[in-house]
Design brief:
Elements: E1 3-6, H1 11-23, E2 28-32, E3 52-56, H2 62-72, E4 76-79, H3 86-91, H4 94-116, H5 120-125, E5 127-133, H6 158-177, E6 181-186, E7 188-190, H7 199-209, E8 213-216, E9 222-227, H8 228-241, E10 247-250, E11 255-257, H9 258-272, E12 285-288, H10 303-309, H11 317-330, H12 332-338, H13 341-351
Parallel strand pairs: 1-2, 1-4, 2-3, 4-5, 5-6, 6-10, 7-9, 8-12
Antiparallel strand pairs: 9-11
Helix pairs in contact: 1-8, 2-4, 4-6, 7-9, 9-11
């Protein structure tokens, strides 16, 4: 028995692979293109582990995916592979269309061909699990109910539109061809190995470097925060017992405005790594011009997965954010290695040169 994980060197994918191999001896074939956000350092602990077979490549490479499927005969394919940063999608939407839509289409076709040729018992047991986002549902007002699985798709950025399209493709391949799929839509993840372009790792890294902490607009954009290890446990549960063709929303039940997140990080750093001059890291907070079309609020209704599959998050935000800050404090070499010249150029472009001084 084997599983194939696409995008398994990225933030969520690498956490999933690491957790999977702690809990199971079932081998993992890990396919990742190693873009800027894919990092083999996330998987360094698996270098000599025979259960982990890493292959560098693109989900859009049909010949490569077909070969891996034929050689390893996985019982499941999990698709974490995606371009995922809203800001980058605004500046360069083409990569998002190519990976999230065209790549998903080609992956579906390769998997469909493989699945169609399996013996009956293996075909019945096979699953394709597609990992998506709550951003496909659009934005909520302060009084709206959280997104349920039945919520209308109303994506507002090139990123969320490309993920919405990929979700629709997965649904269509199930209904048209019978491909046994599962889809998960998660809220904002945080935790170890998170590339520091996203809010939480960016704040930690900038704070420790003595740089400004850029907060968009008034900082009152609300997100539901999900510790990545909880997300991984939910995916394992959906793969194990999810109903074929269904969608499961995965959330942390932690709605918080961005500015509260930033202040929480500053408070933890004041405790765990106090500044020599005795001042708070909060003095580094700087409000910057809001990004175009910034969604005001996301919130996930995760009652279905709890009701049907018995899953709920193990971490509170307070416990998860403490573990996250501690991980970054304990892994300065990982931070240094991912902060290449291209990363610094990106931060300067997005937030201003003073953010990387």
């Amino acid at each position: 028995m084997t599983i194939l994980v696409a995008g398994g060197a990225g933030f969520i994918g690498s956490n999933f692979v690491l957790d999977w191999l702690v809990r199971s001896n079932e081998p993992v074939v890990n396919l990742d293109r190693l873009t800027y956000a894919g990092n083999l350092e996330n998987l360094v602990g698996l270098q000599n582990d025979a259960r982990h077979d890493f292959e560098q490549g693109d989900i859009g490479d049909s010949a490569l995916v077909g070969r891996l499927l034929a050689e390893h005969r996985p019982r499941a394919v999990l698709n974490f592979a995606a371009e995922s940063h809203v800001d980058r999608s605004i500046h360069g939407p083409g990569d998002f269309i190519q990976t999230n839509i065209v790549g998903t289409f080609r992956l579906l076709e390769a998997v469909r061909e493989y699945w169609s040729g399996l013996p009956d018992a293996e075909r019945q047991a096979f699953r394709l699990l597609h990992v998506s986002t709550d951003e496909v549902y659009g934005t909520l007002t302060p009084t709206d109910l959280p997104f349920a699985e039945s919520a209308r798709y109303e994506p507002n950025s090139p990123y969320s539109a490309s993920k919405a399209a990929s979700d629709h493709l997965v649904r269509a391949w199930h209904h048209t061809y019978g491909l046994p799929v599962l889809t998960t839509n998660c809220s904002n993840n945080y935790g170890p190995y998170h590339f520091p372009e996203k809010l939480i790792p960016l704040m930690i890294v900038n704070a420790l470097a003595g740089n400004s902490l850029p907060v968009y607009g008034d900082g009152m954009q609300i997100r539901d925060w999900l510790y990545v290890k909880d997300h991984c446990s939910a995916i394992r549960r959906v793969l194990e017992a999810g109903r074929v063709g269904d969608t499961y929303n995965i959330g942390g039940w932690n709605e918080k405005p961005n500015i509260e997140i930033v202040r929480s990080i500053c408070t933890l750093l004041d405790e765990l790594r106090p500044k020599a001059d005795g001042t708070s890291y909060a003095t580094q907070i700087a409000y910057v011009t809001d990004r175009p079309g910034h969604d005001r609020r996301y919130a996930i209704d995760a009652r279905k997965i709890e009701r049907e599959l018995g899953w709920k998050p193990a971490e509170t935000f307070e416990s998860g954010i403490r573990k996250t800050v501690q991980w970054y404090l304990q892994n300065p070499e990982w931070i240094a290695h991912v902060q290449s010249g291209s990363y610094r150029d990106w931060v300067a472009k997005q937030y201003g040169q003073e953010m990387v001084a």
